[in-house]
């Protein structure tokens, strides 16, 4: 093959690459920022007496614990999340000191998906500022609870999804603002969040921020 032919083919290939849309080039070799959070949510009742008789509170003062996972993918230069994969699940149902025995149905512990509105901007060479807020709670999925008391017949009640909505309250009423550092696994435990008259929420999580190929994380 002559030198002229090789040069001609190389120029044609270069022209084709230059004609590709910017988005196609970015998807072919672009990098994105991947933020992963994995942690727990503990709901603490301020005063159990205040919760008696409240709508959706068939369990009279029991507390709910949950676990969650958040994965957000952002353009490397910043902006809104381009994709995400998040879930929350029951991790415990504590009725310590209650007169009756409470047993939660096994399907209560299945992960439920939720959606966030999230944005990111670089904050230095290896740091990023990330804000997110709950956009969509898990689909309605009432939790069945079997209650057996020393007197009377055992009964199955439903919380009508109240406990899952409560687990999501910290992300719904409170905009979360994080400063994330690239390639460092961080343990975070912010102060308890005041959730109004009845509840405090205690959150803690492991956090990891990495650079990843964008094309591998389009959910």
Secondary-structure map with pairings?
Elements: H1 3-19, H2 22-29, E1 31-45, H3 48-51, E2 63-75, E3 79-80, E4 83-94, E5 101-104, E6 112-113, E7 115-122, E8 127-136, E9 144-148, E10 155-158, H4 162-172, E11 176-181, E12 186-188, E13 193-194, E14 199-213
Describe the fold and architecture.
By secondary structure, the protein is of the alpha+beta class. Helices cover 18% and strands 46% of the residues. The protein is built from 4 helices and 14 strands. The protein has helices spanning 3-19, 22-29, 48-51, 162-172; strands at 31-45, 63-75, 79-80, 83-94, 101-104, 112-113, 115-122, 127-136, 144-148, 155-158, 176-181, 186-188, 193-194, 199-213. Strands 1, 2, 4, 6, 12, 13 and 14 form a 7-stranded antiparallel sheet that branches. It starts with a helix and ends in a 6-residue tail after the last strand. Mean pLDDT is 81; it is low at 14-28 and 53-59.
Question: Which descriptors would you attach to this protein?
Answer:
4 helices, 14 strands, alpha+beta, 18% helix, four-stranded antiparallel beta sheet, single chain, 219 residues, seven-stranded antiparallel beta sheet
